[in-house]
Each structure stands twice: as structure tokens, then as C-alpha cells.
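Quick question, first post here. What does this chain look like in 3D?
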Amino acid sequence: MSIENILPNGEQMDRLIKAHEDGAPTQARIAAALERIAELQASIAAGSAGADFIDATFRTALDGTNTTAVLREWWPMAAGDTPDKYERLARFATMTAQAWDGKVYTVRGYSAATADSAMTALDDLAPLGKAVLATDVAPGGADWAEEDPMTWYVRANAISKQDGTMDVQAVEGIDPDFDVTGEKAPVYCFALALWRRVVRDGSYTTKSWRTTPAADFRPYAGDVAPDNTKRALTWHPAFDGGLNSKGNLTSGAGRAVRNFTSATAGLADVRKWNKYEGLWCDCDTEWLLDMWQLRHQNKENSSILEGCSTYNFQYQVAAAENGVTRVLLAANQAANLVVGSTVSIGDHSVNSNWDRGQADMRNLADKVRITSIAEVSVGEQTYTAINLDLPAAIDVPDTSWLSTMPWHTGSTERVPGHKDGCLGNLTNGKYPLRVAGVEAMVGAYALGLDPLYNVVPGSDSTHWTYDKVAVCRDSEKLAATIGEGYEETGITFTDMPQGWQYVKEFVANDDGVVFPEIIGGSTTQWYKSAFYGSYGAGVRCPWRFAVLDVGGHAGLAAENGNAAPGDASWSGVPRLSGSGKKRGEWPA
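> Answer (accepted):
Ran it through. C-alpha cells below.
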């Protein structure tokens, strides 16, 4: 690609000018960019092009439709001045932020006094509309959010460093050794660290974002570096936790999730990379929920892009077979299953407990993918065969059962481009989702240790008080108890009812904590997600989003607040953390 090809053609120019009347690219601006490009090429040939000149030239070319193309053309030219790949990404983020200087993207939603979950786009976001939601069979057409600097991202393999930056090893689309499986290093989505302003005026909560600083705008808690300066970049793991060949907990596509593992055990797995790695924290959750709101103008994803929340099926096989890589089911049962999803097979001959966590519910095949589903005849009987990705044939007694399980990571790789979406169907509750490059809701909770909650008895046996919500800003100090390294936020909740409680509003705070302030909502209004109140006293940690049998309680704003750091089950998966793993504090 030559650099001229990253500039918009005439048809694109007309669309851009209509969509961005204020500060939009103009023919004069494009002409100036071409002139500067010619100067740049001459300067490079003469060996006199400096970093400022290179960045200024490419900044002129950015128009909201070509950020990835500009990055790829700019990248080798910036290598001489900035050989470190993390620093080069940060430099590009700074350059891109300057190109979008002055733009304000705003969404306004009702306060908890009003049930409506819809949000209204204002300011420079208003003419753009909602971002596209795509599937593998319905790509959805052009999408402003794929390349707009406010919502653009690039994936890279990276490992955490002590100073809070990252050792970026390979960038997708640039380095041929980029590894989407996360074997060599976890996969993160790197994006511009935005400035945010939140205003609550009694009737509305209004959120605004900029790429450059302005009065009353603050960084996200997870984007404040340990030295209390704002980072140019934010980053978040692209996939749920799975193990690489060395047993390291990684973020990568095509892996069985690391369920049956507690948060504390997951921390040990992730620290096999180094002691600076951490687990998913509320800074990640806050950012992802905000990116959903910015892109799709609704408080939360439920019933719009559902995620895997209602894929809870367990069936006894219809017939026994020996030496096979399949199980046979009745047609009406098989109709509920989808190709590509994950199941376990177990010979349940004696035990009366059908919970997926029972060993005999997965002793024949544990977390294997369905490769195809087809009608077959065996003798004079017709069945539906669930064909499985098995390394070897197995014997399947007629006392065997199939259970759906959390998906392998990477199903959303089939969603085109950098669009948000899922496979097959946006709302049927069977598929993991992708938002802002982050795949989530695979049918298991995402486990972390930041924040931690201290729960004490409430007013009666069915209510419990969260008297401490404490955060840990240094991944090296993550622990199972609220001790050294944890700081109390002052957030509390007195007499939280045990069990699921729909959330109306979350506590406003600058600590990156997503915790209920007002409950009593519903599955269709307010945040549409629920918080699971504790059934006992002790230290609790967040289990985020959903599990495949939670149904209407699930969502990007959902949380199980009843689990201890040492709890493990089939429904929880420790997950890596993003930029918030090592963070400072922005001045009040």
C-alpha cells in the first residue's frame, strides 16, 4: 500500500463531510496532506525527517475511516525514533488523539428514577448513530466504530512489566509472528486512553468522552500510570483465561477455558508469565461497560447482544455406541445445540447429582467442541449425531449424558473486521459476544481479585452488609484477604438481600469500581443485569458477567458477589487484567 491510498476518495469525502460537518476533512485539507506526504517522502529519502514531522504528516491523513491503514504505513517510519513497540503504540495514540482534538462524544441516560435503559447520543456522536452489531452471516455493512479514534483498537501480544507498561512483542496486521492463540504471549486490545466526564443532575446521567484533556474530564482509573500521570494507551485482554502449553494462564483464541479454578489459583497460573501479571479487575469491567454505552447507546447489552446466558442443556444419550467420536441424541434435543460450542460427556451410571461439576458428568470427554450435527440411521432407528472434536474414539454407554459447557475462546473471530457482535444470533443467549475487541460472556463468570469485599451480617438471616470495598492498585499485591496492598474506597451497601437483585444504578466513584448503589430493577429496564448478594459473611471477590444457565440476570453489568477468592466451580474462569493491573491515582 502506498501512503496516498490511506486518504479518502471523493465518495468517502462526501460521506465524511456530511457525517462530520464540524472539523471534518475538506478537499483543501486533503490537498495539504498530499503535499506534506510528498515532503515527507523527500525528507525520508534525504534522511532528514524527524519524529515530529512524520507524526504531523500522518496526523493530517487521519479521517476516522483509515486509522488502521495509517498505523501500518506509519509504523516502519517511526521505528528508528521509537524502537520499543509499546512506546511506538503510545506515540501513535498521542498522534491520533491530537487528530481528534476538540471532538466530544456524549451519551445521556436517565437516572435511576426512570426505568428506561436507552441512552441518547449527543454532541459529535449524534450524527454517527449506533455502531453495527454483526454476526458471521450478517456483517452489517459500514461501521463508523471500526476506525474512529474514539473506538478504534489494535490487538497485540504483550507481557506486563514492573513499571506498568507492557512488553509488546507482536502487533496484529504488522508483525507476521502475531499469535492470536496467546501461546507466546497473551493477546490484548490496545486503544486510546480516553478522557471522560460523568455528570449526574438528578434526571439524567451524562457521559462524555474526548481524546484530549478539557475542564472536568478525567482519565479512567485503570489508565492512570503508577507515577499518577495519564497513559496514552489503555489495554484489556481479548479473551477469557485458558492455559498455554507451559501452564500459563493466557488470553488467546481457540482454548478451552480454565474453569474449575479459583481466583487465587488463577493468580498463580497468570504469574507464571511473571510476578507483574494480574487478574481481571473492575477497571476492565468499567471500561468495557462504557465502551458498550458509547458504541450502542444503551446502558447494558441484555436483549441486544445477549452473550451466552441461556445455553443450559443436559441430555441422556439416545443409544449406546462403542469406538465413536460422537453421541446420539433425539432430534428435538439436538436442535437446541449449536456447532462450535463446547460440551462434556460423562457416564452417569450411579450418581444422582447431574451438576456439571461432578466428575462422572465429564469422565468420557471434558470440554470438547461440537464439529457437526447430522441425522444418522443406526439399524432401523434414526438419531441425530453430535460429532465431537475428540483425539481418540470413546465408548459411550447408554447411561451417558451430554452437558453444555462454557465455550472455547475465539468464537467471535468469525465476526467480520473489528465489529461488535457474535455468531449466528445476537439475542438467543447461546453465543459469546465481542465488544471493543474484547470477547466476553462465554458461559462462565470472569474471576478477579480487585476489588475485594468484606461481608458481615445484616439485620436478619437473609440480608448481609458489604461494609468494605477495597481496591488493589498493584498486581504484585493481589491477595485473598483485605490486607496490605488494598485500600478501602468508602463504598458500602447495608442489608443487601441474598440472591439475585436487579441493579438500577451503580455507585459513582473514581476508583474504577462497579458496585450497586440502588437495586430493585428488572430484566428489561434500568441496567437489566443483576447482582447476586452474599449468603454469608467473609471476604468476597467479583465474579463478572454471566454463566450459561443464569438467563435474564446476566449481562456486562452483572456480578456474582457471593464467591470467596478460593471458590472454584465449572462456572468460573480466572481472566487476565488490563492496564488497571498497575495504576496510580489521579489528583482529586
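Helices lie at 10-19, 27-46, 51-61, 67-78, 85-99, 263-270, 282-296, 331-334.
The radius of gyration is 25 Å.
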